[in-house]
Amino acid sequence: MTSKAGFVALIGEPNAGKSTLLNTMVGSKVSIVTHKVQTTRARIRGIAMEGDSQIVFVDTPGLFRPRRRLDRAMVAAAWSGAADADVVVLMIEAHRGLTDGVRTILDALRERVGGAPVALAINKIDRVKAEHLLGLADIMNDAFPFARTFMISAEKGHGVGGLREWLAAEIPEGPWLYPEDQVADLPLRMISAEVTREKLTLRLHQELPYQLTVETEAWDERPDGSVRIDQIIYVAREGHKGIVLGKKGETIKEVGRRAREDLEEFLDRRVHLFTRVQVRTNWLDEKERFSRMGLDWSGDA
C-alpha cells in the first residue's frame, strides 16, 4: 500500500476539548489539558499512525477575541495552523452548540481556509440527549458545508476511531514525515515545561491565569539512564512568587511532584526535577519568551 502523510489542524473555541482529542488520537500525553480556558499557547504537533497513514495533528490555541499581545499571538498561531493544514477539524461542545464564538470561527473559516476539507467534531456527546445531537448537527451543516460530521467524546474515546480513519483516508499520499515511533515534534525541553505549567494551572486555578510561564533551563542526561531537568517559573509580580511557592514551599513541592510523575511516565525513566521561581515583570512583552513558546511576537490575529 502507498504511504500517506499530512497535517490536520484542530480548531475551536477555548476548552472545546482539542488537547484531549489530540492526546487520545496520539495515545500519549503531548498537549496540556486543564479545565481552564486558553491553556494551549503554541501549536503542538502530535503524531498518530493509522495503517499506512501518518497523521500529524496541530493542536492550535483556542480561538477567542484577542486583547493582549499574547492573545493576538495565540490566535494568529491558530489560524496559521488551519491555513497550512491538509484537513481541518472544527470542534464544538455538544451542550453549548452554535455559540457566537463558533459563528465567528465559521465566518473566518470561509475566508482563511482554502480548499482543505473541513470536518465537524461535536464533542462531549455524553452531556446531551441524542435528539439534541441530531438537531445540532443539522444546524451546523446548514451554517457551513462540512465534509463530514462526527459525534465524539474525546475524553472517553467514543467515536474517535472513526474520525481517525476518515482523516487517514483524506490526507495526501507521500512519505512519512517522522519516524514511526515518534509521538510529537516538540523538543523534550518544551514538553517538560508544558507539563509543569499544566500542574501549576491546575493547582492555582484562577489566581495566575496568564501571569506565568515555565522554561527548561537545563537538561542533563545521567550515566544511570535518568535525567535531571532544571526549570524556571517566570511570574510577572512579586506577590505572585509567594502564591507559586505556597506556605513553606508546599505548593511548588506538590506541583513538582506531580510534574515529575507525569514526566517519568512519558519518558519511561527516572526524572530529577528542580524548579525555581523568578519575578520577570515584563515577560509578557519580551520577544524571547514568545519565541520559546513557538509564537510570533508580532503576530496579528
The ordered H/E elements are EHEEHEHEHEHHEEHHEH
Write down the overall mean pLDDT.
Answer: 80
Order the strands across the largest sheet as they lie in space.
2-3-1-4-5-6
**What is the CATH first-level class name of the largest domain?**
Alpha Beta
The SS-based structural class is alpha/beta
- Total strand count, please? 9
Beta percentage is 15-25%
Shape: globular
Total domains: 2
CATH superfamily of the largest domain: P-loop containing nucleotide triphosphate hydrolases
Low-pLDDT stretches are: 32-42, 62-66
Describe the structure.
The protein has helices at 18-26, 69-84, 100-112, 130-143, 160-170, 188-204, 238-245, 250-267, 287-292, and strands at 4-12, 44-50, 53-59, 87-93, 118-123, 148-151, 212-221, 227-235, 271-279. The chain has 301 residues and is an alpha/beta fold. The chain folds into two domains: 4-170, Rossmann fold; 188-292, GMP Synthetase, Chain A, domain 3 (2-Layer Sandwich), CATH 3.30.300.20. It has a six-stranded mixed beta sheet with strand order 2-3-1-4-5-6, sandwiched between helices. A three-stranded mixed beta sheet has the order 7-8-9. Strand 7 (212-221) and strand 8 (227-235) form a beta hairpin. Helix 6 crosses helix 8 (250-267).
